[in-house]
Every structure is written in structure tokens, then in C-alpha cells.
Design a protein that fits this description.
The complex is a heterodimer. Chain A has one domain. Chain A is 71% helix and 0% strand. Chain A is globular, with a radius of gyration of 19 Å. By secondary structure, chain B is α+β, with helices and mostly antiparallel strands. Chain B is built from 18 helices and 24 strands. Classes of the chains: A mainly alpha, B alpha+beta. At the A-B interface, helix 1, helix 2, helix 4, helix 5 and helix 6 of A face helix 6, helix 8, helix 9, helix 17 and helix 18 of B.
Chain lengths: 309, 546
């Protein structure tokens, strides 16, 4: 497969997952701000924007729900907002059009075409629609994509983005404390709330909730699950393994992070949760650039300075 | 532009939004202000969104065998904190008195000996279950969940219409109404401090766990439902989901050696607390109806042995009896030595000959109700009844005076409701829910407001064409939320960061940045040489036609 195509596939996976997760995060935050009479809107919104790597500048005026929605949901120029990442996913599919299945292409293209009309609806309806579109993409990947490298690169992008975004989601709560949306809301945003309640039969603490989102081995949106998934795909992409060490830097970054989480005591993880989550995001970024160097070596113009870490 | 409140008529009833002079009450200012800015089409489309989301979620009730979305009105019912304080106190008091009464009825019957209630009253109640006398409720709690129906009379005073301590339903609508309203009308919430209702499942679970038999360290709680065809099945499944416990039917449980087990894929599992939504007479074919397929044989004897807790307890129905209801203010004075916070609606006891004669004489202007009815069944509203209905109910009263009570027609308070493209007053009631965990009676700040959608209709039950409203209890002090909270205001927060944290940078595909530039270049070209750019997407792809 052409490196360029593989890179597009990788990014389709990431962008669609990004739109999905951003919609989930924003949905709970908008709802929390509406529902909780004690919410401190400006602080919560500033913190959310910062965590999503989109800090509010002095020119943004009073930071409130509308600012967050404008910057993180509707901004078409920024590939990290919902609209921007859906558009970017479609552009990437267009570049890999001969590889991407017609179903998937049409799905992404229709998503782009109907985006403006859905963006005009209320926030919650818009977010539901985004999640639905992401679910259609996931379904097409699951049911109609051969398990060759097409699938591998998309799933790889999806898994890395998911680990990264779940870490960001947890950071929002860890940073805001009681001023944040609360662990239950967070779980709900991941579609994890009911699974979690069943697992702990309703009697659970904040520590259990954080543990569930970080460590659960069975829930597909937990960080450990997503890291595992990414590692598995990387192994399948390069099945030949030497006798010692790991030659793949991406796997190294992800594997070190995953073991750190898996083998740590939950209590220790929770004491410096924001730092741990930051390390998860850094590991994902490292893995992402390692994948780029390994599989999609850029042509002469490597003047790209995305990860200045 | 005309506004949707134009021509909002003031009637005889107390109106929640406007006072007698047509002046807006302060608690409705924000809601009214926001809603007047919307057009009929906008409100209608939001109302549609609400209905669609209820259909999709399956928030339905069973109406004559058909599943219908539970109608949720777009205008919330707003209650001021001061009013709410009284309501909560009154509900707590009522629940404490009913607990004491049930404990007495199924125990020494001291209230009978002291002449507070007649022996006959209790013996003649169809919901008095002798078997309950043999069951000692764990922690002394019989009314784990109660729903006390309140109305507001013409003067705006809250009065109790009936007590529900058997299997009160409707709390699921409180939870899902709030969820739906927050999603559909986020801007209505933005400047108000509305007390959240999301705590209910945790409170209920804590109360259920607390009521487990002694010596069970990690009790297993289940919700027992009659099954998917029950009209409140949605509620049962919602509660089970929010509690994170199993939703069981009678056939999933069995008893052995005086203990209750459920059948699971991992073998049998002990059950310690059953939040049962099955009525007494169906719950155990051994003790009650032998033909019941909904119950669990041996359940009552397991409860008698103290091996399982039934919540709510068996035999609570005697407290719901509408003739017992007439004695509740006396019971409050008797058991608690307190004056009732919430008054009853005036009620005639038809067993008393004078009262019966008066009622039969004035039946055209009164409401008569069967004492054991629920869901608005059997109620005859005198002024709205036909001659035949009046005749029928008169002869039934003469036959069975114990079976009926009569009340004056109370003009329930009205609140603005979206009907036929405008806001119109419709009659409301309120069912607050209380959870008793044995040490404290907690009243959910909110409750189910039911609204009678047909004009002038006074029966608000959902089985009688009623809908509901989200009920907002405003936070004490500030009615509105400040954009920037002042010092010391609101809930204390731990570790609020003084400045926002810095985020980890996010990667994007570098090609996308380039693509943007290309797009702009293409657009410039397009403006000189017109081209249909939208079709481009489908033609650049591989050879296959889509």
C-alpha cells in the first residue's frame, strides 16, 4: 500500500474518532453547565478549551458555552473541532478514494454534505448526529472492510485517538474537581455509565469510576483497552519480531504507557491523575509520530513541527 | 410580533405564573422572558424534538394496550425554594406519620385503643394484609419510597390529595423529563439555579442497601417487575439501569430453604433486597392469589424469616386507603405530636349518616372517589358527570358507603402549557417522592408535575389523557445565576485552578493544512472559470462509478 494512502487511512480513523469523542465531551459539558446550578461557566469552559488544546485567547471575550461550541464544535477550519475533523476525514478519504470502500466514502461524503444543516440544530441533536455518523463509519469498518492494511491503519488511528481523547476527558474532571461534570457524567459521555453501574452494581466510588475509564480490560473506550488495541494492530502490521527488545518505537511508547497504567496501584494513579493523563497523551503523540516516520515517511518537505515536545 | 402568552386567561383557579392581578410571579420571570422570545414554530419544533426523543427512548406508558409517548410539556413548572421547604417538611412529616401508623396497625394497634382511628376502619380496608403483621421490617422501614400527591387550592395553599406508599410510580419521568429538557431547552436553564434530580438513584440504592437483612455485608439488590407488558415497565427498567442492579421477573427468582435466589448463567445468586413493583396480591401465590404467574412462591415466608427485605413492605396499601387518608392529620398529631404542615382536602366520610345524606343531596357539585382506587379510576366529578353516571354512583354509595369518599371540587392550580400553538393555563398537580433510608426521609427536590391537557379537565392522571412537566425547584437565595460568581457564593469548590491548565498539543494530518491551501487556490480558479465543484468529490475517486 502506498504510504500516502496509509497515512490518509490512519487519519480517517483518527478524525472520525476525534469528532465522535469531542461530541461526547461537549455534550456532557453543555449539559452539566445547564443542569448544575453551581457550575462556574467561565472557569469550566476555559479549562475545557485548554485541555482540548485550543486555549481561549484574549480576543475571545467572555468565555462561555457559546465560545466552546464555536471553537470545538463548529469551527470548520480547525481539524480538531467536530466540523473540522469531519471535513478532514472526508478530505483524507478523497485522497484515498481508490482504496476506501464506496460505502465508507459515501458515508463520509454525505456527512460533509449534510453537516451544515445538522450544525444548525440544537447542540444535543447535533452531537447525537455526529455520534451516529461515527457509528456508521465504525460499522462499515467492522463489517465491510477486509482485514488487510486498509483496516489496520484505520483501526490504528482510531485506537490511538481514543486513548488520547479518553485521557483528555479524564483530565477535564481531574482538573476541575467538584466544579467539573462529575465522574458519572463522564462515564455517561463514553457510553460507559450503564456498563460501569452493572459492573459495580451501583455501589461505586469516584476511584472506581476513574479506574473503569483508565483500566477496564473489557470496556472498549478505556485507555488500557485502546492502547492494547493499538499495540495489537501494530504487531499485525509487523509480525516479524526479533529475539529481544521491541524494534517499533510506536509499540514501545504505547507499551510502556500501558504497562505503567496496568501495573500501577489505582491509588497511586489517582494521586497525580492530571500528570498521568498528560503522559498518556504524550505517549499517543510519540506513537503517532513514530508511526509516521515508520510507515508514512514524508517527502522532502519535513517542515512540519506539530509535536514540539 | 405577538407573543405566545397573549390572551393567557386568568380563571378562578390559582395560577402558577400570574397572580390575581395578572402580574408575573418572580419565580417565572426567567422562564417567561425566554419563552416570549420564541415563535410558535420554534416552540412547536422543540416540542416535536421532545416527543421524538421520548419515542426513541421508549419513554412511553401503556394506554389501553397501546404504547404512547408520555407527553412532556415544554413549559416547566417552577417552585420557589420557600414553598419547597414547606412541601419537603410536610412530605417528610407525612411519611414519618404513615410509617408510625403502619408499624402500629401491624403491631399493637395502639391508635385504635386510644380511639384515634376506629378498629372497623382498619379491618374493613381491602388492603389490610394480616400476613404483614408477621414480618418485621429490617431497620423499621416500610415506606422506602413514597409519593405524596399534592394540589394547590384556589388560594395557592398546597394540600395533600392522596398518599402512595404501596408502589408509587412516576419517578422515572422526573429523571427523564429533566434530561430531555436540558437537552432541548438549554437556554432556559442558563440563568436559573435549578436543583438537580440526578441523585435519586443513588439515594434509593443507599436506602435499599440499608434495608438489607442483618449480617449481609454486600447485599444483592434487585428490582422485581411484573414484566414488559406492565404500564410502568419503562420505569422499572430505567431504575434497574440507574441502580446498576438486575431487573428480574417472578420467574427469575425462586426460594429454597427460606432464602430467595435468582437464576443466572453463573448459577444461583442470593437475593437480599427486592425493590418490588408487583402488587401485594400477585407477589406470592402461596400467600395471596394462587393463580399469580408474576410472583415467587415462598417469598412471603422468606420475608417472614427475615432473609429478604421487600421494599416497599407488604400491606402498605392500608395507608393509601382514602378513608384512612381522612385520619392522617389526626395521626400526625397522635404519633408525632406535631401540627400537620400540609393540610388535607376536605373530605366527607360516607359511613357517617349525616355526611352521606349531605353528599347524596349535593352530589352534582362534589367529587366522589373509591377509597382503593388509583390512576383516576372510578372518580366521578359531579359537575361534569352525566345523569346516568350520577345515578350509578349514588346507588353504589348507598350499597357500600365504606368504599367511597366525597370531596368538594377543588380548582387545581393552573400553569402555562403549550397547547395548539400557544401557552394556555392547564390544571396541575404534583407528586414529590420521598426515600426513607431508616435514619432520614429525603425528599427529591422536584417531583412529577402532571398536567391535564384537555381544557378544564381536573383529573390529571396519565391514563386519563394527562401529560407531565419538568418540575424546577429553585435554589435558595439567588433566583438567577450570576455570570461571574461573587466571593463566597455557591458551593465551595476544592482545588479550583487559578488559571486554566495547559493542554497537550494535538496532531493533525499535515496534508490537511496543505489541502486547505489548495482548496483556496482551487476556489480562486473556480471564481474565474465556473465549475461544479461539488461533483468533483465523486469523480476524482477510482474508476468505479458510485
Amino acid at each position: 500500500m502506498l504510504s500516502r494512502i496509509a497515512e490518509s487511512l490512519f487519519w480517517i480513523g483518527r478524525y472520525v474518532e476525534r469528532a465522535d469523542d469531542t461530541a461526547r465531551i461537549l455534550d456532557v459539558h453543555v449539559q452539566m453547565l445547564s443542569e448544575d446550578p453551581w457550575a462556574d461557566e467561565a472557569t469550566a469552559c476555559r479549562s475545557l478549551l485548554a485541555i482540548m488544546d485550543h486555549p481561549a485567547g484574549p480576543g475571545d471575550g467572555e468565555v462561555n458555552r457559546d465560545t466552546v461550541l464555536r471553537l470545538l464544535a463548529h469551527d470548520r477550519e480547525n481539524p480538531s473541532s467536530i466540523a473540522g475533523s469531519l471535513l478532514a476525514a472526508r478530505e483524507n478519504a478523497r485522497r484515498a478514494r481508490e482504496i476506501v470502500s464506496t460505502d465508507l466514502w459515501e458515508c463520509l461524503n454525505t456527512t460533509r454534505n449534510t453537516l451544515p444543516s445538522h450544525a444548525r440544530r440544537g447542540p444535543h441533536e447535533f452531537f447525537s448526529w455526529v455520534r451516529e455518523r461515527a457509528a456508521v463509519v465504525a460499522g462499515l469498518m467492522e463489517s465491510a472492510t477486509p482485514r488487510d492494511s486498509t483496516w489496520h491503519f484505520m483501526v490504528l488511528g482510531q485506537a490511538i485517538e481514543r486513548a488520547d481523547m479518553t485521557a483528555r476527558l479524564i483530565t477535564t474532571q481531574a482538573r476541575l474537581g467538584t466544579g467539573g461534570p462529575g465522574w458519572n457524567t463522564l462515564l455517561r459521555s463514553c457510553g460507559a455509565y450503564e456498563a460501569y453501574l452493572r459492573t459495580y452494581r451501583g455501589r461505586a466510588s469516584d476511584a472506581d469510576a476513574a479506574g473503569f475509564l483508565i483500566l477496564d480490560r473489557l470496556f472498549p473506550r478505556s485507555i488500557v483497552y485502546a492502547l492494547h488495541a493499538a499495540e495489537r494492530v501494530l504487531r499485525e502490521l509487523e509480525p516479524v519480531e526479533g529475539r529481544h527488545a521491541v524494534s517499533d518505537d510506536a509499540r514501545r511508547a504505547l507499551g510502556i504507557m500501558r504497562s505503567e497504567l496496568e501495573f500501577a496501584r489505582l491509588g497511586d494513579l489517582l494521586t497525580d491523575l492530571p500528570d498521568t493523563m498528560e503522559r498518556v497523551q504524550v505517549a499517543c503523540t510519540r506513537a503517532s509520530s513514530a508511526i509516521k516516520h515508520r510507515y508514512f515517511p514524508a517527502v522532502a518537505t519535513t517542515a512540519w513541527v506539530e509535536e514540539a515536545l | 410580533m405577538t407573543d405566545l402568552f397573549d390572551g393567557y386567561p386568568l380563571q378562578q383557579a390559582f395560577d402558577e405564573m400570574l397572580d390575581r392581578d395578572g402580574v408575573l410571579r418572580s419565580c417565572y420571570e426567567q422562564v417567561h422572558g425566554r419563552l416570549t422570545r420564541l415563535t410558535a414554530d420554534e416552540v412547536a419544533s422543540r416540542a416535536d424534538a421532545l416527543a421524538r426523543s421520548y419515542l426513541a427512548q421508549g419513554v412511553t406508558f401503556d394506554f389501553a394496550g397501546e404504547e404512547r409517548p408520555f407527553p412532556l410539556d415544554v413549559v416547566p413548572r417552577v417552585i420557589e425554594q420557600d414553598d419547597w421547604t414547606d412541601i419537603a417538611l410536610g412530605v417528610q412529616q407525612r411519611v414519618r406519620a404513615l410509617e408510625a401508623f403502619l408499624d402500629d396497625v401491624y403491631g399493637p394497634q395502639q391508635a385504635v385503643k386510644d380511639g384515634v382511628v376506629p378498629q372497623r376502619l382498619i379491618q374493613s380496608s381491602s388492603d389490610f394484609q394480616r400476613v404483614a403483621a408477621s414480618i418485621r421490617p429490617a431497620g423499621g422501614v416500610r415506606c422506602h419510597v413514597s409519593g405524596i400527591d399534592l394540589i394547590r387550592d384556589e388560594a395557592g395553599g398546597y394540600r395533600v390529595l392522596e398518599d402512595n406508599v404501596r408502589v408509587p410510580s412516576g419517578v422515572s419521568y422526573v429523571v427523564s423529563n429533566r434530561r430531555a429538557m436540558v437537552r432541548t431547552f438549554p437556554e432556559l436553564f442558563s440563568r436559573l439555579r435549578v436543583q438537580p434530580v440526578v441523585d435519586y438513584p443513588q439515594r434509593l440504592l443507599a436506602a435499599l442497601v440499608a434495608s438489607a437483612p442483618d449480617g449481609v455485608p454486600d447485599p444483592t439488590v434487585v428490582v422485581l417487575t411484573p414484566g414488559v407488558y406492565n404500564s410502568a415497565y419503562f420505569e422499572h427498567s430505567l431504575l434497574a439501569r440507574l441502580l446498576g442492579v438486575e431487573l428480574v421477573e417472578g420467574r427469575d427468582l425462586y426460594t429454597k430453604g427460606g432464602r430467595v435466589y435468582m437464576r443466572t448463567t453463573e448459577g444461583s445468586r442470593r437475593v437480599d433486597v427486592i425493590y418490588r413493583r408487583v402488587d401485594d396480591e400477585w407477589i406470592d401465590p402461596v400467600e395471596f392469589r394462587g393463580d399469580s404467574m408474576l410472583g415467587v412462591p415462598g417469598l412471603v415466608s422468606a420475608a417472614r424469616l427475615g432473609n429478604v427485605t421487600l421494599a416497599n413492605a407488604l400491606g402498605n396499601g392500608v395507608a393509601d386507603d382514602k378513608l384512612v387518608y381522612t385520619y392522617v392529620p389526626d395521626l400526625i398529631r397522635y404519633y408525632l405530636a406535631e401540627e400537620p404542615v400540609l393540610a388535607n382536602v376536605d373530605t366527607w366520610r360516607l359511613e357517617e349518616p349525616d355526611a352521606r345524606a349531605e353528599v347524596l343531596d349535593r352530589i352534582n357539585e362534589l367529587v366522589v372517589k373509591p377509597v382503593d382506587g388509583s390512576g383516576g379510576k372510578g372518580i366521578v366529578v359531579g359537575p361534569q358527570a352525566t345523569r346516568a353516571e350520577i345515578d350509578a354512583v349514588q346507588s353504589r354509595i348507598v350499597e357500600d358507603p365504606r368504599g367511597w369518599i366525597a370531596q368538594p371540587v377543588v380548582q387545581l392550580s393552573t400553569g402555562p402549557t403549550f397547547v395548539d400553538g400557544a401557552f394556555r393555563p392547564r390544571h396541575l398537580d404534583l407528586r414529590p417522592f420521598a426515600v426513607n433510608d431508616g435514619s432520614d426521609v429525603w425528599v427529591l427536590p422536584g417531583g412529577l408535575t402532571r398536567v391535564a391537557l384537555p381544557e378544564g379537565q381536573l383529573v390529571v392522571n396519565s391514563s386519563q389523557g394527562g401529560g407531565s412537566k419538568d418540575t424546577w425547584v429553585l435554589e435558595a437565595g439567588a433566583g438567577t445565576r450570576q455570570a461571574v460568581p461573587g466571593p463566597g457564593e455557591g458551593r465551595p469548590k476544592t482545588a479550583r485552578p487559578s488559571e486554566p491548565p495547559t493542554g497537550v498539543p494535538r496532531a493533525t494530518n499535515p496534508d490537511d493544512v496543505a489541502a486547505n491551501q489548495q482548496q483556496q487556490q482551487q476556489q480562486q480558479q473556480a471564481s474565474t472559470t465556473p465549475r461544479v465543484s461539488t461533483s468533483e468529490g465523486t469523480t476524482t475517486g477510482g474508476g468505479s462509478a458510485c
